[in-house]
Amino acid sequence: MQAHRKRLIERSSYFRGLLCGSFSESCLDCISIQWNLETFINVMKSIYSFPLDITSQNFIHLLEGALYFGVESLVLKCRTWFSLISSSKGPAVLLDDLINIWNFGLEHAIDFVPELCASYLARNFMWAMSSTFFGDIPYSLLILCIKHPHLTVDSEMRLADAIFVWLENNTEQSESLSKNKELSVDLLKQIRISLLPLWFVAGKKNSDYFSELADVSIDSTFKVMKIRTKGSIDPLEDYDSNHLRIRLTEFSEKVDVSGCPQLSSEFLILSLLPSSYSTDSTLRKSIGKSFLNIGRADRDQCQILPGLPPILSFEAVQEVDMSKCPRLHLEPAIEYISLSFPSLRTLKAAYISNFKTSTLLKLMHKCPQINEVDLTVDASPVIPTQVSVLSSSSLAIVPTISNRSSIFRLETTPSTITKLTLQGRSNICDMDLQYISEISVSLQYINLNGCISLTDLSISNLLRRCVKLNSILVCDTSFGVDSILALCSANFSFGSSAACLGKQHLDSLACNLQTLHMGGCRGVDESSLLKLLSQAKQLQSLCLRETHVVDDVLYSFSGSSLVTLDISNTMICVAALAHIVQRNPDLKYLNARGCRRLSQLETSHTGLDSSFSSSSSRSCNQLHIALGNACRLEEVAFGWGFSGFSLVILEPALMSLRSITVGLGGSLGEDVLRCLPMVCPMLESVNLYFQVISDAAIVNIIESLKHLQVLALCYCFGDISILSFKFVTKNLRKLKLERVTPWMTNNDLGILTQNFSNLIELSLTGCKLLNSDCQQLISHGWPGLISLSLEDCGEVTANGISFLFDCVAIEDLVLRHNGPGLQKSFVLDAASKMPMLRRISLDMCDASEGDFDIPDYMDRFFLNTVKIARCRPQRGSVDVGLLKTSRRLLVHKETLVLVWNSENFVRTVIKERL
């Protein structure tokens, strides 16, 4: 290679010293360089000002060459490139390359590398967490990244999870305990433990790393909540609000604070102010006073607080998840959200009961770019079509007339919302839906499941106005004939659809439907449903559970795009279902549980394809053959007509199966159950009802299915023992044992806590040998439970409740027929000691004083549903040898159901036992 001596001397300190110094090479015309050829050529290109393409793969080589040969211009180019990359959002550098760059920078004492590596990793931390190289990040880089002001995470929980993963990968048995502890303490103390979801913290109480901090975090949560309940003028007084300051940077795209009962509107506002103001006691007191009476009706028109410093703007944020934050009053919060997140597209505020229709309309007005809103709440258990109501009364919690009148005075431009979920909102009435439909001109997806106050007429009016709808979920509502007529009527403002050319209704809404869920809607007649499905050829998800659907309706459906089909608890026959399956090879989710006619032979049908025309072949095997040949299933639920032979036929379709449910009427058999893991190796959920099972089958399922997360054994027959559950499985999250383990003792339960240590849902029924000592086993073994059901379990509550209150994250609690030791104040105690509790089911037989106190609206915390079953004595007889003795039996009489929503308190007495 020829090069000008002068150029080399000017641009390279290496050649300057070599050619101008006392080295022998200084007088030579030719010198030899031992270096990587490609790198050296790039160094020479830089010396001669040729353009260079710097990448994360060649960065180290170029920088090393630049340093060795002393080419300052190339060092500057490398630094400039890395500075530009480190300031970007997105995986411009692979994580393993970044780690190599960090190590190279430390080895060569390059001052700019540590800061730029930490900055890049901080801004892209969510991406780095998903990399297989995350555990290889050096401790010094990780700690610098976490302390960096640009650290960008969706939630504090995700940061904590990442730290746990890193510690598991980097804490070795060979290292000293003191060094391990030092590493973990330094990392864990960077977590803002007061911003962690309660269920997450409770589940980590048994963690090797986090047990002490988990207790501190729980204490912190209760401290903040007690400050509010005491009615302090300054709810932020004497509390370090930095621990409750949400991490927000200019690179944040998602904010997730879901599951944090400690989060209030006050702390949200402080997070949106410059950090210097979070310690301003005067400002904090002013905010506290402003929110003191936030629960009152006059707070609905909340404005920006006077004298408040400028709100910070985070324009990159597109999604905010505030679900399960009971202390967060969204009416005033929207004012600040609209200012801080001007690009907001998605708001999730599920399970916050104080969200009213006026709040939704205000959100549409204040956040004009929003297109997805999720306001899901628990649906009322009193579905008019499913229960027999003995009496019912309603009490208004807040004035509703003035509130709804104010809705129509809002000047709201047409909304950009395309997806709206109002599931379970029993307070949504026809007037609310009318106004929503008038401004939601872009709506494509609507979920009204469980909105029991809506009439068929109001739903039909919505369907006529929102002409872009393609997904409609209206299960357990009054959806009926009027709504179907609206779907099937021509809509000239929508335009025609190519999929329906040649048909009468070229532009009906039904013609463009992709999702239709109408389970439990029994106000639909056969002719209307037949007309609807004959037009809905584009359907991908269809739910007809518990409807009066008949075979002709399924035959009328000629679509071929179904992915999900639920016809559970209907009277559909095998041939009709096989007809659907044969035409829809993309079917992945099928629920045919409770369909009694699937086990019967059928007569021929004139509309049936020739392959199914012979009446002699009308059997369930044809259905399974069609499924096995055409589909690749991921979730199935069968009952009547399903057998072990069916599973063998279905085997080609089940290799990717993730969930299987076999209910009443189905029979797999012992041999088939043993083969289940071989046929379906990817199973995550196994639910067996009324099956014959054994220890060997259960052991094989638990031991062989490495991805198993859900196991339900209910009302099964066979000889099983504790041997079935003596295998450790860390993945199991939900366990339901109903009437299958009557032999279970406290010692057996202790074995379950050791082997299934990560459960979040537990349901035990009929374990009559358990006593009150099992409470401590449950609370210590599974402190992170979010659902607990104990029914007919010996004397678990005979001496009252003590240790169960340590399961602070429980959201759903069922305690029935476990001993008459529950105090009269139990409902109030549970609501205050379990701040996430939303649903509770009790039995009056367990009340030590014969009754339970009912909390008022302000004292119920997060609670929205209380079910109390009542029994009545009935004299019966029992055979004992040759003697017949009589005794008083307790049989169900009625159930008292109490439901709170944002506007009403409804008290209902029904016949059924819910």
Notes on the structure:
There is one protein chain. This protein is α/β, with parallel strands linked by helices and 914 residues long. It has a domain at 383-399 and 746-875 and 886-913: Leucine-rich repeat, LRR (right-handed beta-alpha superhelix) (Alpha-Beta Horseshoe), CATH 3.80.10. 33% of the residues lie in helices and 14% in strands. The protein contains 31 helices and 24 strands. The protein has a 24-stranded mixed beta sheet, with no helix packed on it. Helix 21 (481-488) links the parallel strand 8 (471-473) and strand 9 (515-517). The longest helix is centred in the N-terminal third of the chain and has 19 residues, at 211-229. It is globular and about 115 Å long. The protein starts with a helix and ends with a strand. Mean pLDDT is 85; it is low at 228-238, 293-301, 492-505 and 601-618. Residues 1-56 form the BTB domain.
